[in-house]
Design brief:
By secondary structure, the protein is mostly beta strands. The chain has seven helices and 25 strands. 10% of the residues lie in helices and 39% in strands.
């Protein structure tokens, strides 16, 4: 091993624990944009002000989804992105900057800053785009962008050290301008060492994958307090960091309905460490003000208002009976103490492959002998009404998860969906298993890759 690498590793291991814990996650801004065409060589410009609170790196990129009208060839004036600090603006005072930042940093996708509102602050703006031997000190990067490589652009990356941060006051602006005769739409991405993250719904629709929030378990601890386990089942995507900034009516919440009375907490309170930002992350939250000392029905829901686009919306809620007698976790009460098989979810994974989830929501498990017998409960799949596959119990539940009450088995079909389709899934249509409820074995979902 290279001696320099060894020295670096030793140095990192020697860092005190408190120094490692101080590493902060960068803020991320992802917004949908519409850049209207230029008028008589007057560019249409959007400004995105950001405020750095520590040294670090600024990254800017763009995904252009449409140019209207579509260029007949690649020989056209592209869009332009320029990164400057606030010294590029004339006589801008601290109160004016704060007002600008507050107006720009809203979770309303229509709340953009038009160039005319700050024209009196712009100084020497033509110098940013003209030919000069020496670039201005406030210019930190620029690039052309447009519909290249499936709409993605190159990116600007600019490292800000402590001396520069002190010089600029942490005030930077991403300038996005269009001098072409085309109207452009798409998504802009900005990450920076700051505190305010932003996301709008139009930009979220352009993401290539989504998280999958699920209520995994609901129960009581030794103090009879309501406890909830949440997870992000997605294998590719976490919950966007902007969700931790949102408050009030905009906040993503966890709610509990206990015998008709509602309790709710914002995401920032139930997951302050941001575990759900990671694919596969999970948390357990205790409603310390909710004690259950008698039998009652509890329904727990995450993201009840549907603010987050997810791989599946079917697993955001769970209803249980808590308190004496012992809790019984189920979505639909079975008629008897028997297994109750349902198709609990049909979704796409990060590679657009169809995934089917089967659950046993009864209070009895499947007979283990069914896994090796000739009369196994079959998972029947159809696509757009046409027969697709018949999968045996052993093949869709190799871990024998359905042999216990509350168990779930995930079957990965491996089929990559390339266009919209209606998927029908039915479990045990021939009634090989005597279930508590025989009327809930089929599910239909429309999937769009």
């Amino acid at each position: 091993m290279d001696r320099r690498i060894i020295v670096l590793l030793v140095a990192l291991l020697a860092l005190p624990l408190y120094a490692r814990a101080e590493v902060q996650e960068d803020a991320v801004i992802q917004k949908y944009f519409t850049l209207y065409k230029a008028e008589q060589n007057d560019p249409y410009t959007l400004y995105y002000p950001i405020e750095l609170t520590r040294p670090g790196q600024i990254t800017v990129s763009v995904k252009a989804t449409r140019l209207n009208p579509e260029p007949s060839n690649k020989d056209y004036e592209p869009l332009r992105i320029i990164l400057v600090d606030a010294r590029a603006f004339k006589d801008i005072k601290t109160p004016e900057w704060k007002q600008w930042i507050q107006k720009a940093n809203k979770f309303n996708p229509l709340e953009y800053i038009a160039g005319d509102e700050i024209r009196q602050w712009v100084k020497g703006i033509k110098r940013l785009f003209g030919k000069k031997d020496k670039k201005p000190g406030y210019l930190h990067g620029q690039m052309a962008c447009g519909r290249v490589i499936d709409g993605y652009t190159d990116y600007i990356q600019h490292a800000v050290d402590s001396p520069e941060l002190q010089k600029t006051g942490g005030r930077y602006v991403v300038i996005f301008r269009n001098i072409s005769p085309f109207e452009a739409t798409g998504m802009i991405f900005i990450s920076y060492p700051g505190e305010i993250s932003e996301l709008d719904t139009e930009a979220e629709r352009l993401f290539e994958g989504y998280p999958d929030l699920a209520v995994e378990d609901v129960g009581l601890n030794e103090a009879k307090q309501l406890t909830v386990k949440l997870s992000n089942r997605s294998k590719c995507c976490g919950v966007h960091i902007a969700r931790w900034n949102q408050t009030g009516a905009e906040a993503l919440t966890l709610t509990a309905n206990v015998d008709g009375r509602n309790y709710g907490m914002a995401l920032s309170a139930i997951d302050p460490d941001g575990r759900l930002k990671r694919p596969g992350g999970s948390i357990t939250y205790v409603f310390d003000k909710v004690k259950i000392v008698k039998s009652g029905t509890v329904t727990v829901t995450v993201d009840a208002t549907g603010k987050v686009r997810e791989e599946s919306e079917a697993n955001n809620s769970k209803t249980v009976q808590l308190g004496p007698p012992a809790a019984t976790l189920r979505q639909t009460p079975p008629l008897t103490g028997k297994p109750d098989l349902i198709v609990s979810d049909i979704r796409l994974d990060s590679a657009k492959r169809v995934v089917v989830e089967v659950a046993n929501i009864g209070i009895g498990g499947l007979d283990p002998a069914l896994y090796s017998g000739g009369n196994q409960p079959i998972l029947n799949l159809k696509m757009n009404g046409n027969g697709w596959a018949n999968v045996s119990l052993f093949d869709y539940d190799r871990g024998k998860m359905l042999a216990k009450a509350g168990g779930r088995a995930v079957y990965e079909t491996g089929y990559v969906l390339k266009k919209k389709a209606t998927i029908d899934a039915a479990i045990d249509t021939t009634n090989m298993v005597e279930e508590g409820n025989e009327d809930n074995n089929a599910t239909q979902v429309k999937l769009n890759p």
